[in-house]
């Protein structure tokens, strides 16, 4: 009898700690983000909350890694890779916090998640603003029991692919350290 009770408690614990499904994760973040976006102006604290929502939603380490060719990434030491991820995250957070008004929505419909195994998913959201539809696709991975996006495809334009194209052009003529400096300057500019 005691064994059955312990098994029941263990199963209940597993269910309690299981990650919520990817659609629920996106819906929660989007709901708070849309509330902030609908304000005519945001104070500094609200802008920081937008940046925090982005950090809580995206796996910037994986996104950053996917923006660099595999050979260029492997050629860097751990310190350079870490600095790149840090500056890339700062740049994306700062610039995205300013441009999110473009993704204000009157209504949103989410398709069921398309799963690839147990730890990869794609979530498609249809956003309508003033009668115009935009389609967002979140490519997600399960990281430490939490669904995190590593790419956002907006109307067929991939964030990861866009940055990869830009960075590969820069790396044709500049070093990885120079790329980090460029990203750092862009992060600083968009923070103002």
Largest sheet: 6 strands, antiparallel
Instruction: Kindly report the oligomeric state of this protein.
Output: single chain
Strand content: 15-25%
**Secondary-structure element order, N to C:** HHHHHHEEEEEEHH
Map the helices and strands.
Layout: H1 2-17, H2 22-37, H3 44-57, H4 60-66, H5 70-74, H6 78-99, E1 107-110, E2 114-116, E3 120-129, E4 132-143, E5 146-154, E6 157-158, H7 159-173, H8 176-191
Antiparallel strand pairs: 1-3, 2-3, 3-4, 4-5, 5-6
Helix pairs in contact: 2-3, 3-6, 4-6, 6-8
Description:
Mean pLDDT is 84; it is low at 1-18. Strands 1, 2, 3, 4, 5 and 6 form a 6-stranded antiparallel β-sheet that branches. A hairpin with a 2-residue loop joins strand 5 (146-154) and strand 6. By secondary structure, the protein is of the alpha+beta class. 58% of the residues lie in helices and 21% in strands. Helix 3 (44-57) packs across helix 6.
Q: Summed up, what is this model?
A:
The protein has 192 residues and is an alpha+beta fold. It has helices at 2-17, 22-37, 44-57, 60-66, 70-74, 78-99, 159-173, 176-191; strands spanning 107-110, 114-116, 120-129, 132-143, 146-154, 157-158. Helix 2 packs antiparallel against helix 3 (44-57), helix 3 (44-57) crosses helix 6 and helix 4 crosses helix 6 (78-99).
């Amino acid at each position: 009898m005691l064994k059955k009770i312990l098994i029941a408690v263990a199963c209940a614990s597993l269910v309690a700690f299981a990650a919520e499904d990817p659609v629920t994760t996106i819906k929660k973040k989007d709901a708070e983000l849309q509330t902030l976006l609908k304000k005519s102006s945001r104070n500094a604290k609200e802008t920081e909350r937008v940046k925090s929502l982005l950090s809580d939603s995206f796996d910037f380490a994986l996104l950053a890694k996917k923006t660099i060719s595999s050979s260029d990434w492997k050629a860097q030491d751990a310190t350079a890779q870490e600095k790149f991820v840090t500056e890339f995250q700062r740049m994306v957070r700062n610039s995205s916090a300013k441009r999110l008004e473009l993704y204000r929505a009157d209504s949103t419909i989410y398709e069921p998640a398309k799963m690839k195994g147990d730890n990869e998913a794609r979530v498609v959201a249809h956003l309508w603003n003033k009668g115009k539809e935009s389609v967002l696709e979140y490519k997600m991975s399960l990281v430490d029991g939490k669904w995190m996006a590593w790419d956002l495809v907006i109307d067929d334009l991939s964030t990861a692919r866009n940055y990869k194209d830009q960075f590969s052009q820069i790396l044709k003529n500049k070093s990885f350290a120079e790329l980090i400096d460029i990203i750092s300057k862009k992060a600083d500019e968009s923070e103002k």
